[in-house]
Write a structure and sequence with these properties.
The chain is an alpha/beta fold and about 350 residues long. It is built from 11 helices and 12 strands. It has 2 domains: about 180 residues, Isopropylmalate Dehydrogenase (3-Layer(aba) Sandwich), CATH 3.40.718; about 140 residues, Isopropylmalate Dehydrogenase (3-Layer(aba) Sandwich), CATH 3.40.718.10. Bound molecules: 1,4-dihydronicotinamide adenine dinucleotide and magnesium ion. Keywords: Manganese, Metal-binding, NAD, Oxidoreductase.
Length: about 350
Amino acid sequence: MTSKRVAVIPGDGIGPEVTSEAIAVVEATGAPVEFEEFGINSGRWHRGEDLIGEEELERLDTSAGILLGAVGDPAVPSGVLERDILLRLRFRYDLGVNLRPVRLLPGARSPLRAANAESVDMVFVRENTEGPYAGTGGSFRVDTPDELALQDSVNTRRAVTRAVRYAFELAAARRGHLTWIHKTNVLTHAGRLWAKVVEEQHQRFPQVEVAYQHADATCIHLVQDPGRFDVAVTDNLFGDLVTDLGGAVAGGIGFLPSANIAPDNQHPGLFEPVHGSAPDIAGLGVANPTGSILSAALLLREIGFEEQATAIEKAVNAAGTAGRLSGKTREISSAVVEHLDR
Ligand code: NAI
Ligand code: MG
């Protein structure tokens, strides 16, 4: 098998701590992957440098995928690192789908009494480029009593179709159930387009059962009856909110992986744990690396190493069953490596 080059952006705070453990786990699977590290982090902002250099961009462009730890530094103005690193790559590669599996792992404790491994096992597909996050709108008559701020929700047939089609494919490969989430009762224009696209794609996947839920009601159901969700698809803003709630239900942000992928082009995907740089625990060696390890598994699956991806997911489960997904960062990753079936 020819080896593939994976770009690694460890980033800030606990990012480097968890990423190095994810790399160790991937290496232990024997996947033919070569890692190339990029020092893209807040240090550059402090030194007045560009966050990503042109040559680095070219290297990133031609990588098979990108594994990111986290970016975030309390001393950098809010939004700068997100915009110049995460959003920049997301838009450059047109990463139209944000995939967030939410699974209650053995050994993880959900705040919900009724939660268990069967009921909390779902995947959210979040549209990743549009909605209210597209950045269109404007401010008018600023600093006057008539000040006006507009923030539009952008919904194109192309991007909605891309996310919805991906969700149907996933649902067909899992339990054959898809929930789409919106606020069609008030956001009627966007809602109509989403409804039409869901209907169209449903015709291509008649075997998938489709349910609709309002975004607010989703928050109730996720807490009271998480088992009703398997695959769920929604727009950028609703997806941001409900996946955080899903993460809480799954027993903690340190366990959750995510993937930003481009289902309709050849650009590299960006894979990262859901958590941020956690400055409060950075450097202590206590960050949970599970989210990063599972993100690396999603990356391996996306670039064609299904066997190694599944091996990692099984090892994480087995380590959890053995009660070993808590403790210090290194202890957790060693437990995962020990449970790899080799
Ligand atoms: P955070 O996710 O970094 O931390 C929230 C809480 O969860 C903290 O108490 C932290 O200690 C804990 N936590 C997070 N990951 C953990 C892990 N793996 N193991 C154990 N505990 C963990 O979110 P916060 O505090 O809102 O943001 C910190 C910085 O990270 C900010 O600068 C923010 O902008 C950035 N951030 C970056 C993200 C990214 O790179 N994709 C995502 C979210 C936030
Ligand atoms: Mg969020």
